[in-house]
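Fill-in record for SDR family oxidoreductase.
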Amino acid sequence: MSLDGKVAIVTGSGRGLGLAYAQELARRGASVVVNDVDAATTADAVAAIQASGGRAVAVTAPVGPTETAKELVNTAIEQFGRLDILVTNAGVLRDTVLWKMSDDDFDTVINVHLRGTFTTVREAVLHMRQAGEGGRIICIGSPTGQRGNFGQTNYAAAKAGIVGMVRTWALELKRAGITANTVVPVAATAMTATVPYFAAAVQADANGEPMPAFFRHDLGFGTSDDVAGLIAFLGSDAAASVTGQVIGVGGDRLQIWTHPEAALTAYREGGWTYDALVQAWPTEFAGATQSVGERFPELPEEFRPAAS
C-alpha cells in the first residue's frame, strides 16, 4: 500500500528525525511540505527529496503562530491540491532544573511544542473536515512526556500536553474519519548525542555502522529511519482504524503505551480523613505508588565511556 496521491506537512523537517519522516513519506509516494526556521536548511531538505524522485516544497517559518499554521496548510493546497497527513515534529529545548528555569525558557518550549502542535493541527483539521475525505494527524511525543526527566519541566509539560490533546482529538475527529495518534521516538538525535549512556550507539550511527544489539533490542534505541516507517504507516489507509494511541518506536522495538488508569482503588465509609490516611497509607497504598523518570538497564562494560 503506497501513499501515492497523498499530501503531507511535516513541521521541523529540515534535518534529523523530521527530515527522515518527510523523506519516507515522499518515498512512499506522498507530496511533502517541508518546514524549518532556516531557509538554507529547508532548501537542502527539499533538494534531497527531489533528488530521490519525490515531490516537496518548503515553508520557512517558526511553528507556534497561527500565521505559520495557515501558511503551511495553504501551501499544501496551492502546490499539491489537497492535504491528507500532518506530522507535528517541530521543537526546541531549553533544559535546566526548575529553580533555574526562566519564564522565557518555559514559554519558548511550550510555544513551539504545545502551541505549535495546537495551531497547526487546528488549521489542518479545518481543511480536512471541509474536504470530507478524512485525514491523519501524527504528533510527536517523548518518553519525557510519559515519565518525566530531570531538567525538563518545560519539555515534559509540552509533551504530556500533546498526548492529552491527541486523545481528545481522537474523540472529536472520529466522525470525520480523521485519526490522531502520538508517536514516541527513541533514536539517535542531536539531543541523545550529548548523553554519555548512548555514546556507543550514536557513534556507530555516525560512522554508518550497525548499532549494537544491546541498544537496538534491549533499549529500543535506533536510527531516524527506524521511526520513519511507523510515521508512514500511520499516515496510510492501512491505519484507518488506529486512533488515540501513544506508540513508542526505536531500534527493533515497538510499544503501545497504556493510557493512565487507576493503579489501586480503595473505599472508606465517610471518606479518607487525615487520620485514616496516616494509618492506612503504609499498608494499603504505599505498594501501589508509581515510579518516575526513565529506567535504563545497566550499560554493558564494553559500551561505557572511558574515564577521563
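KEY FINDING: The mean pLDDT is 96.
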